């Protein structure tokens, strides 16, 4: 934004400052300023300069003369007439896709209908590339004809976009989602906050929760204000804090029979908590144990010790034992009454551990039954006690703010005389505002924070003033919203290159889900960030930074549905060993594989097939892989006989695409079509019946039941695509275990690729996917581009996607080549004015 825009915002903020108190002032200002961000402030660039500055898209086949081009266009029309019109005529077209009367020459000639035609041709390209058109039971062209037609259509689409760059419309204003807000606070204030307790859940669009709207309704605004006030207190460390509490409750289905990674060896169960203590002083920890349906402590047949640790140092050892003179199951309401302890701790982040020392000499520990999750699910007693929740209360006696990482980052100076507070406050606040607002600081930016500072400084002192100013910064729309302003004087619908500052924000929120750091801002302010060699260097630097872990937590976790694992609840009668420990291990295996591809910059094709996976003892036991001991994860080389490796064999993926009692070839096939092949089936028509329970009662297999389901013509079109792909994963049950029998019958894992090619099992399915790597890489690139831009991919993005895939192929499809290609692409660097 230009300085004029900042003055407009600041004047409105100044006008809305009432004199009735700090809180009311802050609420008033934010509510008015949230909608006062105006557009403009960047230099005008013509579309001619833009096209010259962006890497040129390759245009195969368009060096030919017009006669040859016309011949190619006619060949496409002949191909469509021969292979497509039967299903896609104007009379009841399959999936609503009409190809009758469509002429690729109209796109080549830029006729008025060409934009809509381009959207249709883009869908055709994806189906042809995956060989999904024509359907498997129709006659198909040979590979040479497929390639020729694809080359012609893609060349026409690429040429049309090169002549008329049309970046998709990205929302001018998008607010930070919860993950971005948490990361921004971490990078701004060195403070890790529990954002789930502060802000409401985000809505998702196109599969990602960073595709959000930009308004700030009053209810949400109040949540942001409350969060800002709490975060400011934690960062500064207010000494006037009254005792408060934080309670952490463990999942009911978590086993506590084995070691927890990060806790001392020789212990079992419990939990490890990262907790921020706002001030140095005295706090209290309170423990509760799990109880059965009669409210008796589970598993308490003999005395057990419980260790309380801070930063791995033992602070206190509790002992719990059954009431004297009473057997198990009698009244034990007072058993855990003494499980509380006052302790002193310095301000800042600390690890709190609570765990049970192993009772190696105890017969009950040595001979106890393996944990069965159905015990807890149906409220039967465990074999040994388990932790239910941990509460941390305080501070009771504050000894001062201490030197936390947040305070070390904040207080770069301290006033030595009464004349110095303003100068020192400006020195503290200006760098914060630059990082928070992602641009150079203007004098207008300083007005409201300094006003808040002076009010509190006059009454409560310097640090209270900084706390108030920090609250004002954290509720400012320039922090909460990602605004992309059109250059002043530009006409609506004109394409232009985004500013270097906007580019810095796009880059940092893509790779880090957070604010640009000082290095990015320095390059942006110098006007050099947009240079290709500079961008490539920055991508490499940022991927080596630990903040790139956000690509795992925010991109991969949503793309692969890992976030859905929390809602996976297999039927405990069929899968009694499933528990939260296994759920967590499933997720971690997939995260670590994706993380290793980023860290080592390997080919993303290893997501499909690899001989290395990441296991701990719990997951290895689930997979039947011996020799993996301990709770920590480590890379493990697997053999073909162990049936593990790529993500299609990961229990995480197999579980989120199953039902509670059985597998679902339909869900699994749909997941592969959407996320691996990039060709999702159309939504089902209304009132389609589900698989009938009657069929299950007749002991039909899932395959037989789906065969009956496909007899309904309304169901067949989609299921003929999804089910054959999903059948190839039938050797894995609903929790991802390998099986060759189901209910006494041999498992049939034969299936087919969408092009009709038969596959015998998951190995052949992987081979089929890898036989056309560009299909998978295109699908992954579109997912990454959606995440990077915060909008769905459009047909006008197709040429850029194809260029990214071609260049990545030259670099063995390394992960960095995809990310670099996206950052250098027109959709990432261009914008269309509103």
UniProtKB/TrEMBL annotation:
Superkingdom of this protein's organism: Bacteria
Pfam family, one: PSD2
Domain DUF1592: 499-625
Domain DUF1585: 755-828
DUF1587 domain residues: 174-236
Residues covered by the DUF1588 domain: 644-739
Domain DUF1595: residue ranges: 424-484
UniProt domain Cytochrome C Planctomycete-type: residue ranges: 84-137
Name of the protein in question: Planctomycete cytochrome C
Organism from which the protein derives: Novipirellula artificiosorum
